[in-house]
Amino acid sequence: MRLIENWFSERYSENLQLSFRVMDQLLSVKTDFQRIDVFETYDFGKLLSIDGTVQLTEKDEFVYHEMITRVPYFMASRKPRSALIIGGGDGGAAREFLKLGLERITNVEIDSQVVEVSRKFFPSLASSFSDSRVTLIIGDGAEFLKENRDKFDIIIVDSTDPVGPAEVLFHKEFYNSVKKALSKDGIIVTQSGSPFYQPNGLKLAYNGMKEVFRNVSVYTAFIPTYPSGFWSFTMGSDSPLSARGDEVDPGKYFNARVLEGAFSLPQFVYELISG
Ligand code: SAM
User: Fold this and answer.
1) How confident is the model at residue 2 (pLDDT cuts 50, 70, 90)?
2) Range 6-54 has CATH code 2.30.140.10
3) Domain ranges of the chain
4) How many Cβ atoms are within 10 Å of 207's Cβ, its own excluded?
5) Is 141 helix (H, G, I), strand (E, B) or coil?
6) Strand order through the sheet with 152-158
7) How far is the CA of 169 from the centre of ligand 1 (A)?
């Protein structure tokens, strides 16, 4: 990734990009799977990019990581004790599951270098991998599930967008193997992109899950550094999807009202998934 006059830009299209002025480029490495860059930005702290797309920044990562973990946690009809994270090599999702008191967390990340980079530049996320409740496996999440015999109360797909190594994670076949690995009343959540800029990613996840799970819902969150700042997550389960009613400990973004409101979809998003 070449910096142009100290700006890192994520290109959304030929005509559109989001730019961060950066103090320094801390790393640029090409792995077997992707290109990883780390920048020190002026306004968002350190930024991790994969193949030119923002994965996280120190300033707003809390929104994504709270929303991909706490929403399924509080929607599960029984208090969850175990979780499988597919992707998530930065450690942020594992950190949040630890905060929620989960007893067993398995994290399957395809690219060991994402973990190494995070250990070096984002220790407040990657330190979760040193906790004895977390098992880190380096491998493809879809392949892992083919061999897996364990059951998990929550499975989250904290992956890159549905191109390259993450493409398999958005298909019906994958959701079928997720279903086998879920315990009774288990829940899957996948990040499903920006409904505004990436409607096909959301449709892919929603339609794929619909073929496999009895109940599928979409929720959204405000994530300033992701395309359009408006992000979707798609959730599936064979059990009814409604909040368990436990008292909700607020995070920095998440609270009881957010849990309720996140499922209220703007009409264009509703039409996207109903069409
Ligand atoms: N928060 C992020 C976002 O939505 O932009 C996702 C962050 S996390 C760093 C994404 C991770 O998914 C990457 O480290 C990537 O290597 C991993 N990944 C992609 N495809 C995968 C696969 N098939 N199995 C396991 N991990 C995968």
Assistant:
1) low
2) yes
3) 6-54, 61-274
4) 14
5) helix
6) 134-138, 104-109, 82-87, 152-158, 182-191, 230-237, 215-222
7) 10
66 lines ligand 1 (CB under 6 A): no
Mean of pLDDT over the chain? 96
Question: What's domain 61-274's architecture?
Answer: 3-Layer(aba) Sandwich (3.40)
Above pLDDT 90, what percent of the chain?
A: 92
User: Is-catalytic flag, 158?
Assistant: yes
Q: Give the residue, by CA position, lying nearest to ligand 1 atom 16.
A: 111
pLDDT at 181: 98
* Atom 1 (ligand 1) nearest CA: 55
Nearest-atom index, ligand 1, CA of 33: 16
Q: Return the ligand 1 atom nearest residue 56 CA.
A: 1
pLDDT of residue 3: 66
What distance in Å separates the CA atoms of residue 184 and residue 43, rounded to the nearest whole number?
Answer: 44
Q: What is the pLDDT of residue 209?
A: 97
